[in-house]
Amino acid sequence: MNAPRLLRVAVFLLAAAPAAALALDFAAGALATPYRTILRETGLWSMRLLTLGLLLSPLARLAGSELLAAPRRMVGLFAAAYAFAHGWAWCRQYGYDWGFLLGELPRPYLLAGLVALLMLVPLVATSNAMARARLGAAWARLHRLAVPVAVLAALHFLLSRALPPRESLVHAVLLALALAERGLGAWRAKTRPSPRDGRIPPR
Length: 203
Ligand code: HEM
Description:
mainly alpha, 0% strand
């Protein structure tokens, strides 16, 4: 098995493990507050994978190895699957009381989460190779949505409690670093003199 495939298999097993553990505990009746626990765990794992997904490219560039970027798609799909399960757990926790749930939605942290979740839909729908080939350059533009998704999800996490949980601050810092690396790369690409303009490139 080649290295990218091996990495993808490892990432698959690691990303699926929390879902499998949760499903086993749920089936065994081992969760005292099942939907609350599912809401919490799926939210946390979705957030972790969204942050990881945005860190993989900068890390690959820093390490000078494309290998690290290989599991990006899988990480994104797992992040989305956990996010959809999280949204479902919220509805289930309140017994699908749609009147109550709709009344809750205007709360800023829930709105941020909902917009992030909705933006994941076109990303998941176009994550396959056929959509990528069909959309051409538009695909890359569309998939830049992963940035606002992660930022909104981090905001949702930060605002979800009166005191921000420590992990939410870690995500905010990691996302800021990932975005700064991207911004710096774009700025460098813009300011780098083209080989045709006769200037000596800065050292
Ligand atoms: C990409 C989308 C989303 C991500 C990544 C996400 C992530 C998270 C995270 C990390 C937490 C904190 C878990 C904890 O420590 O307890 C959380 C809490 C929560 N989320 Fe989301 N979320 C998303 C979307 C949504 C949506 C669409 C809803 C419902 C409309 C929602 C409802 C909630 C609720 C009710 C809590 C619990 C707040 C509390 O009482 O502690 N989330 N979410």
